[in-house]
Design a protein that fits this description.
single chain; 185 residues; mainly alpha; two-stranded antiparallel ribbon; 8 helices; 2 strands; 70% helix; 3% strand; elongated
């Protein structure tokens, strides 16, 4: 997904094609969610939304077969629903996705959901003082989950809040190995 995005698109199309050809498998909801996300990100919001809602329905249909994928699917569903539904409503889905990911032992998707929730709260109009606490909590959670790739993202959000509050700081320097953030002059 991150190293070769073009291959990721092919994988998604193959998952959808195999589901249509051979029926449901435990990864079918993830394939449908990713396909819906792909459609939405490329401008076809209505079709994308339909596919992510289908993915959510497939989770219910598959039941216990898809427990390990539930958090991942719900996170992609919530991201795509942000295009069509109010941001704070999509956040409710992200919170559920985070809980499902933690239950399934998937700290990567739990961390991703947490950071997306905080990010959407910024754009959804959450009070800045509440958002500051949420960012600090999210940073601690991400570090606890050892998902250091999301630490820079949280620093960007913190910088946005500082600017909105009129606080002047130097740009952060982020140590990718430890996840520590320093402001240097």
């Amino acid at each position: 997904h991150f190293v070769s995005p073009a291959v990721h698109k092919i994988d998604i199309m193959k998952m959808v094609q195999m589901t249509l050809s051979y029926g449901l498998s435990p990864v079918a909801p993830f394939g449908m969610a990713c396909f819906g996300s792909f459609l939405a990100k490329n401008g076809n919001l209505t079709a994308g939304h339909r596919f992510v809602l289908l993915a959510k329905s497939l989770l219910d249909e598959l039941g216990e077969l898809s427990d390990e994928l539930t958090g991942k699917v719900m996170c992609v569903v919530a991201e795509s629903c942000s295009y069509m539904e109010p941001l704070l409503a999509a956040n409710e889905q992200r919170i559920q996705a985070e809980i499902a990911a933690i239950s399934g032992g998937d700290t990567y998707w739990a961390s991703t959901c947490r950071m997306q929730t905080v990010s959407n709260s910024l754009w959804g109009g959450t009070h800045l003082s509440s958002l500051k606490r949420a960012i600090l909590d999210a940073q601690a959670f991400v570090k606890q989950c050892d998902n250091m790739t999301l630490v820079p993202f949280s620093s960007i959000m913190q910088r946005s809040i500082d600017i909105l509050e009129g606080i002047e700081r130097e740009l952060p320097v982020i140590d990718q190995l430890s996840g520590s953030v320093e402001y240097r002059t």
